[in-house]
Amino acid sequence: MSSSSIQFLGFGLAFTGFIGLIASTAMTEWKASSYAGENIVTAQATYEGLWMSCVSQSTGNMHCKAFDSLLLQPMELQLTRALMITSILLSATAVLVALVGMKCTTCLAEDWQQKARVAVVGGILFVIAGSSLARPCS
Predict the structure, then answer these.
(1) Which residues make Cβ contacts (< 8 Å) with residue 96, sequence separation at least 6?
(2) Are the CB atoms for 47 and 53 separated by under 8 Å?
């Protein structure tokens, strides 16, 4: 396998992770709990995300409500939001930097050493974005 195909494969995996990061930040299933009670007809499940909470009833109805105030939430939730958004911004920057540094693009084509350095910086930004994501997801 040539170096440019490995580079393209790595970029594809990193970009897929970036899309997954955006999806996981937006989803409401960060915290789930359920209540069945004495009657299964009244069973309901509660889901809380970073931005809203949802209640799903056994009848199939689902109601979501955005948090009234984002600043009145627990500090852990606020820190998780901040780290997830930081990771999204770092990943978006890393995508742009890595695209410039890839061998299959014509940006900086006259200086191959500079192009290689830019590709390494893009990879380092992906690693930093991933490590800022590790804490809130675990």
Answers:
(1) none
(2) yes
What's the rounded Cα separation, in Å, for the pair 61 and 42? 11
How many degrees, rounded to 5, is the angle at CA 44 between CA 38 and CA 50?
Answer: 145
pLDDT digits (tens, 9 = 90+) for 55-82: 988 788 888 898 888 788 888 888 888 9
Q: In terms of residue numbers, what domain contains 85?
A: 3-31+70-137
DSSP state of 109: T
The verdict on residue 12 lying in a domain is yes
Question: Does pTM surpass 0.85?
Answer: no
DSSP 13-43: HHHHHHHHHHHHHH-STTEEEEE--S-GGG-
Domain count, the chain: 1
